[in-house]
Amino acid sequence: MPPPLFSRFLFQRRTAKGAFAALLATVLGFASAGAAPVKTQLVKTGSGWQLVRDGKPYFIKGGGGGGPKDVLAESGGNSFRTWGVGKDTQRDLDEAQKFGLTVTVGIWLGDNPGGIRRGIEENRQNILKYKDHPALLAWSIGLAAAVTAVLSL
Question: What is the pTM of this model?
Fold first, then answer.
């Protein structure tokens, strides 16, 4: 069972459950390191939920946006996020790998229920394209602006 935050925003409504469940399974499934996939998951613990990567607890220390990744790594950071998939996604992932960082890639779904349904299909190809990149940690589905639309499904 997912943590309460995911339950509220991702599983509350079942209108688009088929497509959304398939996308979510892909998203939470695997990111790879090297040649072999590395499983990334949320695991329930006695005190809450723990992000686990390659069987080890993973605490995100990072930031968002296009700042210098070498500075992030030198400062003790281990991860950053993007706000969407675009022309710089491959470069961002490759640069993250170069500096030993992970990336949470944003996926924009739109800001209304119809847009969200279209966004799921449109982003399936992006997920398939980047899902095995060694630096990929997770996908951030919908971003903050789409929360209202997700809750209205």
Answer: 0.69
Round to whole Å and give the CA distance between 106 and 128: 14
Phi and psi at residue 63, to the nearest 5°: -150, -170
- Alpha helices for 30-112 (secondary structure H): 69-74, 89-98
Helix, strand, coil percent content, the chain, rounded in steps of 5: 40, 25, 35
Per-residue pLDDT of the chain (153 residues; tens, 9 = 90+): 444 333 223 333 333 444 444 444 444 444 433 445 678 999 999 999 999 998 999 999 998 878 899 999 999 999 999 988 999 999 999 999 999 999 999 887 766 667 677 777 778 889 999 999 989 999 988 765 545 544 444
Give the span between the Cα atoms of 30 and 36, in whole angstroms.
Answer: 10
Judge contact between 100 and 77, C-beta under 8 A.
no
